[in-house]
Amino acid sequence: MTTTRTAIVTGAARGIGAATALRLARDGLRVAVLDLSEEAADVTAQAVRDAGGEAVAVGADVADEDAVAAAVARVADTLGAPTVLVNNAGILRDNLLFRMSTSDFDDVLRVHLRGAFLMSRAVQAYQVEARWGRVVNLSSTSALGNRGQANYAAAKAGMQGFTKTLAIELGQFGVTVNAVAPGFIQTEMTRAVADRVGVPFEELLAHEATQVPVRRVGQPEDIAAAVAFFVSEEASFVSGQVLYVAGGPRA
Ligand code: NAP
């Protein structure tokens, strides 16, 4: 008999998180679609339900300790113990170092790192009790360094150290912890980059595609597929890894 697992995907109202929620539901998991706006999250949750899956929308800021505790408890009540967590919520506040404000630095670390920490700490209680669990963290090729992203690169490199440490601590409880590091993916996040630098999005996509060995930009589903592998039952001996999904060694 196979157990129906419950997953929480953060930042899942759109983009990579939404594709991941849909993919995990297709793989048979119940999915909590968590995002800042519950209304926006419900668009994804409805798409999951329309596809025959089971989903709830939960509004919460991943960096707010009380909101995280309440959200995770609500998921446990409505969908069952959450034993799968995808830390996907993220923001960009790009600028060159000399122009980067302290709040732009703090905000990025707050959402990515503090958010992943609070969510993982809340969910691990259910994972340890179940003696089974999966955590997948979203890193980025920017972890290797990217102009204008001192805050984001630090956060995404931080996600890798966080991933490896949780893998060491939680392995004995049957919990694996891995990271997916995407290259350039076509989402609202990268559209905002085009807007900021004043280039039409289509032009940016075409340019980025020429930089990628497989000659295309990534789609949210490319990342969802990698997350789904780490979440799968058969990936139980894969932990503490960072998988670059970038159409080449880096994008
Ligand atoms: P996206 O389209 O901007 O979606 C991110 C989602 O996260 C949004 O729905 C956003 O909500 C939500 N969010 C932001 N702050 C939050 C918070 N404090 N609590 C809860 N939800 C929050 O981004 P994406 O492109 O799909 O990226 C998803 C993840 O992949 C991020 O971690 C990103 O850093 C990473 N990544 C993306 C790329 C890429 O090329 N797109 C590359 C490498 C890594 P609001 O809309 O309300 O702000």
From TrEMBL:
SUPFAM superfamilies per record: NAD(P)-binding Rossmann-fold domains
PROSITE patterns assigned to the protein according to its UniProt record, in alphabetical order: ADH_SHORT
NADP listed as a keyword: yes
InterPro entries associated with the record: KR_dom, NAD(P)-bd_dom_sf, Sc_DH/Rdtase_CS, SDR, SDR_fam
Signal peptide residues on this chain, from the entry's feature table: none
SMART domains according to UniProt: PKS_KR (SM00822)
GO molecular function: oxidoreductase activity
GO biological process, one term: monocarboxylic acid metabolic process
UniProt keyword list: NADP, Oxidoreductase
Ketoreductase domain boundaries: 5-183
Presence of keyword Nucleotide-binding: no
PANTHER family in UniProt: 3-OXOACYL-(ACYL-CARRIER-PROTEIN) REDUCTASE, 3-OXOACYL-[ACYL-CARRIER-PROTEIN] REDUCTASE FABG
Family designation: Belongs to the short-chain dehydrogenases/reductases (SDR) family.
Stated name of the protein: Short-chain dehydrogenase/reductase SDR
Origin species: Cellulomonas fimi (strain ATCC 484 / DSM 20113 / JCM 1341 / CCUG 24087 / LMG 16345 / NBRC 15513 / NCIMB 8980 / NCTC 7547 / NRS-133)
Lineage: Bacteria, Bacillati, Actinomycetota, Actinomycetes, Micrococcales
